[in-house]
Amino acid sequence: MSLLFEKAVAAFDADSASLAARGDVGSSDAAFDVPTTTVTEFAAAHAELAHPDRDEWTRIPLHEPDSAALTGEYVVYSEGLTDEGMFVYYDADADSRKRISREAFEESSLCAQIRFWHSDFVPEERPAYYDSPIQSPVEPSRTVDGDRFFGDLRSHVAAERERAREERERRARDATPTEWCDSGGDGIPTLKRTGTNPDGEYEFAVAGDCIPEGEWSIRDTFGVYEGNEVLLHPPNAETAPGSFPLRATVAEIRGRRLRLSVAWESVEDRASVGSFLAPKRHGYGAVLLLNPVPFDREREAIDDVESRSSLADALTGRRRLTFGSDRAATSSTHDVELNQEQQEAVEHALLADDVCCIHGPPGTGKTRTLVEIVRRAAQSGRSVLVCADSNQAVDNLVVGSSTESEADERSLHAYAQHGAEEFVLARRNYRRSSRSLVRDAYGTTRPEDADVVASTNGSAAALPPRFDLVVMDEATQATCTSACVPLSRGETLVLAGDHRQLPPYSASESPPESAGGLSIFEHVYAEGGVYEGVGVQLRTQYRMHRDVVHFPNRRFYGRTLRNGRDVSAVAGLDALRGFHVVGEERRAGNSYVNETEARLVTHLASEVVAEESNGVGPADIGVITPYSAQVDAIRDSLREHVSGGERITVDTVDSFQGSERDAVFLSLVRSNEAGRVGFMGRRPDGPRRLNVALTRAGKHCSVVANWNVFRGRDADHECTDLYDDFHSFLDDTGRLKRVEPEFIPV
């Protein structure tokens, strides 16, 4: 059907409308081949169009002959009289109702007055009642070459695979297998070579002292599976050939034994390596180098999507997008408290035939909106796949902040089999969930028995291609390649995310050079997308104090956000503060530490915790920083100096996305004479990370930095204008304070 008809139904005044009265309704002057079956099916799904006199009658509103403006008249469609159904109008000449067949109706002048209810027909001008943010059908903003697009996706998978292998190998070569495993890496610390098979594969057995008593599974104990690539370390690195450690593939696992196939193409001194491997000896070790499964899944999904013309055409902008599904008409509103944009997002997602996007800036109720979409789709009898790139994001939709005793009303848990029982929910790969509630409540339900299945994008590869609707959250963190996995399992795709926040993770530090590295959300919806703007932006934010949201709204969202409620500041504090402090950064491995900023953040947090009357405790505070080494330094300092400091959440920007706290302290870390700010000064990552950090706060946000560095003119600093703007905003509004390191009382 069409969005226009949905709006027409809403505008149609059934109480005052009258049955169309005509004399001769013979053949229409214009030849309109209107698919009336689709129109009547969609109309029949709307309870508000039912005729009050007869249950089998459905009223179909008429529009003007040359426009979509409503006439205040309708024709009646009746099922059951014939296989094709009948149409009824008022014969003015005979002064009585008259029934005509579908065939006769399609040739009549009346049929021309329902043509705009089908997406094949588009009026020249929108009627006054049509206020949709999406103009259906949607023409593509640009078209991309299909062969090149899917070729780019495959190339991206191959490049990411190699980068992941190289990065893991670089780190694995610097540690012994025991050190690697002790630090949490997957691998087998001690192996004994036991033989060679006829295929030239080397047989090993796990040393008895490194596997727990009663355990026999190498897979479960060490996280190593058949098909994995490993790095084989020798018993004695000093006496081993220089090619060690060796790349190898796990050919077979049986109990505590495994066979390895050495990647001889990467070995220079093959003879000496072969001689070294020949004797049976103890002391080998293997660390996981690469699990090829995620990359293989993406490659297979890309092939599948490319082979399905409708999906391929939608991703490359080679077709018009239509909004004609009856999911909206065959379901009813559940969450009556949704605001206007949330309602529009639900409506458009349910009507979408191909793709629809929901742009959900921080605090705008994106999760609540998605839950309503899933509830209504399930009510309409559709099977739904709910997915995201990470287990954390999936579980946020499944259970949110639910506990064993109380369900979060913004989560699916509140409405699934353990709640309102509206649908049956299953969690694919539930063992990977960090939430016991997810594992206990949804681990026993088989996906094939569920109406709604929740899964990560990658794990969706194990599901059959049976889903009517795929709802993907955090779609701005899913590459086009990873999105192909769930997309290959469904018909219609609803993407939700915020392209002003973090992009997808990549093993490369450089911005993506092809479509493969872009998020699926950006590829479709963002500036330059194939269907730019094809969706609804949620515009009312409920999380942040007006002063906290002011700068992100102006800088990142073009002043499109409005405040939906009055959020009070932490008592005794301005909602937003900036601190300028010149500390000294210190390199810590691949990360950075700034102990001066760690001390200042500790002092600021201690002031908030000490004031019991403000209602903000340690668990309500978050500390965000770009660098993992600074995370460790601040955690240690808080535990030492702040009462309950161990309950304050401290994490990197990337890990904090999706979370929120009443009070947030941001430490930007970098402080050096050269003016280097690292990745926080690189586009597009730098601005997005700053946006994420600032918008985690509800009542209070403090930003600690050496502003001289972030406003500097280093050649690699691409975001000077951003930090200049933020600094000026803080300074001009009296929110910036200068702190001398020696006066910090921590």
TrEMBL record:
GO terms for molecular function: 5'-3' DNA helicase activity; ATP binding; DNA binding; hydrolase activity. Residues 352-530 form the AAA+ ATPase domain. SMART domains: AAA. Residues 160-196 are annotated as: Disordered. The keyword Transport does not apply. Pfam families: AAA_11, AAA_12. Residues 160-176 have a biased composition (Basic and acidic residues). This is AAA domain-containing protein. It comes from Halopelagius longus.
